[in-house]
């Protein structure tokens, strides 16, 4: 994959989104009654506290803090499927006995440390290639993946607490950057997972506060394009933008928003794409 292009992203834009989603999560959890930290999330085996522990763990890893030793072999747990899952679970178990308020303090402390480190990071480090959850990529792309991950978990927490995002809360840099990250993976979804045939032109028509048009053209390989050169799409998939992010993240749809998914054009291909939208590890 040496010829794979590296994504160069504007540091201030990505960090604005990352810091904003951390602020939103901290505000959402501030003063949360202790029982609500145990509310079941849409992710199997994880409550609200586990979601926050996972984010603490990832930022700690990026800050060079080793994962705590678990009390059991976490790789045997049903919802742990890979090495990243093992690291996540070490932090989840380690912090499970702490109070919600203490876990929130840890979240604030590690994200404050990361803010300082990221703000001071030189441009050459920001653009340097490193291993990321999406393969060898720029550190900046990795941080956009962090925006996506944290924003998705904010929505998970909101579902768990029965406090889904209002329309105005869905507008802003974190959701826009998360959609950018998801859009960048749709070529893989359409081409590799759904095996859309050569010549396919797939339009994701997202509605609601996260409205956006995402176009994937299959021309040798499936890739994100600005337009179809005046041609009509062969497949149209229309749904609420937040619900699109839920499906792309392997989550159940949010119960408070429209769950309609309208398919146009080649129904077989459209159906395969929707069935294979989940791209997360």
Automatic annotation (TrEMBL):
Every Mycothiol-dependent maleylpyruvate isomerase metal-binding domain range: 20-158
GO molecular function: metal ion binding
Pfam family, any one: MDMPI_C
Annotated coiled-coil segments of the chain: none
Alphabetical list of InterPro entries matching this protein: DinB/YfiT-like (IPR034660), Maleyloyr_isom (IPR017517), MDMPI_C-term_domain (IPR010872), MDMPI_metal-binding (IPR024344)
Domain MDMPI C-terminal intervals: 176-271
Protein name: Mycothiol-dependent maleylpyruvate isomerase metal-binding domain-containing protein
High-level lineage: Bacteria, Bacillati, Actinomycetota, Actinomycetes, Mycobacteriales
């Amino acid at each position: 994959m040496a010829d794979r292009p590296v994504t160069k992203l504007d540091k201030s834009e990505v960090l604005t989104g990352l810091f904003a989603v951390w602020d939103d999560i901290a505000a959402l959890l501030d003063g949360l009654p202790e029982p609500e930290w145990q509310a079941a999330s849409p992710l199997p085996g994880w409550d609200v506290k586990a979601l926050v522990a996972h984010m603490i763990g990832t930022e700690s890893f990026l800050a060079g803090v080793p994962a705590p030793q678990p009390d059991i072999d976490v790789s045997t747990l049903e919802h742990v499927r890979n090495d990243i899952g093992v690291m996540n679970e070490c932090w989840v178990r380690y912090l499970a006995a702490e109070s919600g308020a203490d876990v929130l303090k840890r979240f604030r402390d590690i994200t404050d440390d990361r803010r300082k480190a990221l703000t001071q990071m030189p441009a050459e480090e920001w653009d340097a290639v490193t291993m990321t959850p999406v393969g060898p990529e720029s550190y900046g792309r990795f941080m956009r993946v962090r925006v996506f991950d944290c924003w998705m978990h904010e929505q998970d927490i909101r579902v768990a607490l029965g406090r889904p995002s209002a329309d105005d809360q869905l507008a802003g840099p974190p959701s826009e950057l998360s959609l950018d990250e998801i859009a960048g993976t749709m070529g893989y979804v359409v081409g590799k997972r759904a095996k859309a045939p050569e010549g396919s032109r797939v339009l994701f028509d997202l509605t609601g506060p996260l409205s956006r048009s995402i176009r994937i053209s299959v021309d040798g390989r499936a890739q994100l394009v600005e337009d179809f050169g005046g041609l009509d799409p062969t497949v149209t998939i229309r749904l609420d933008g937040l619900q699109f992010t839920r499906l792309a993240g392997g989550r159940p749809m949010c119960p408070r928003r429209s769950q309609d998914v309208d398919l146009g054009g080649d129904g077989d291909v459209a159906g395969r794409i929707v069935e294979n939208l989940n791209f997360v590890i």
